[in-house]
Design a protein that fits this description.
Helix content: under 10%
CATH topology of the domain at 16-124: Neuraminidase
Distance between the termini: 32 Å
Radius of gyration: 16 Å
Number of strands: 16
Order of helices and strands: EEEEEEEEEEEEEEEE
Strand order of the largest sheet: 1-2-3-4
Number of helices: 0
Strand content: over 45%
Structural class: mainly beta
CATH architecture of the domain at 16-124: 6 Propeller
CATH class of the domain at 16-124: Mainly Beta
Length: 165
């Protein structure tokens, strides 16, 4: 049985969590994003220009993406500069990247995918407020699993570009 230890304490209603490649935990809550080092040191990563952060995810370049209540997906460069990545998203909630750096964004009714080249497509619709997106690591590139948690939980598996539920 694995032992348990405290990584971060004092969290107040977190709405998004993500780890960077250095093992630091980023936590979204209210109008702030906090960073926790593996040693337990907490600092404020972002507070200005953040409305109500929801989902958080890092891409392979180390940039932090945030689903924000101001109907956009924002991007923080590794230097900490915030830029608007995608606007006009109805209630963005969850974010995750796959191994090919495709961004998956959940909103109030479904999940869509954005390629690194900026092409947006629908991944799943008719869902009840999906959030908390995560990919299951897969042994081969043609197989991946996506898990979303919302009013209902579901697992979607795409095999060779076909969506299965």
């Amino acid at each position: 049985m694995a032992s348990k230890s405290m990584f971060a304490s004092g969290l107040s209603s977190p709405t998004g969590l993500a780890f960077n490649s250095a093992g630091d935990l980023f936590e979204a809550q209210h109008a702030d994003i906090f960073e926790f080092t593996p040693g337990g040191v907490q600092s404020t990563f972002a507070s200005s220009g953040v409305a109500a952060p929801q989902g958080l995810a890092f891409n392979s370049a180390g940039n932090l993406f945030m689903a924000d209540a101001d109907l956009e997906v924002g991007e923080f460069t590794s230097g900490g500069t915030r830029i608007a990545f995608l606007s006009g998203v109805p209630v963005p909630l969850g974010l995750t990247f796959d191994s090919a750096d495709n961004l998956f964004v959940s909103d109030s009714g479904g999940i869509f995918e954005i390629t690194p080249g900026g092409v947006k497509s629908t991944f799943a619709t008719g869902l009840s407020i999906p959030r908390g997106l995560a990919f299951q690591p897969a042994p081969e590139p043609s197989t991946l699993g996506l898990l979303a948690v919302g009013a209902i939980a579901f697992i979607a598996r795409r095999l060779q570009n076909r969506l299965r539920f």
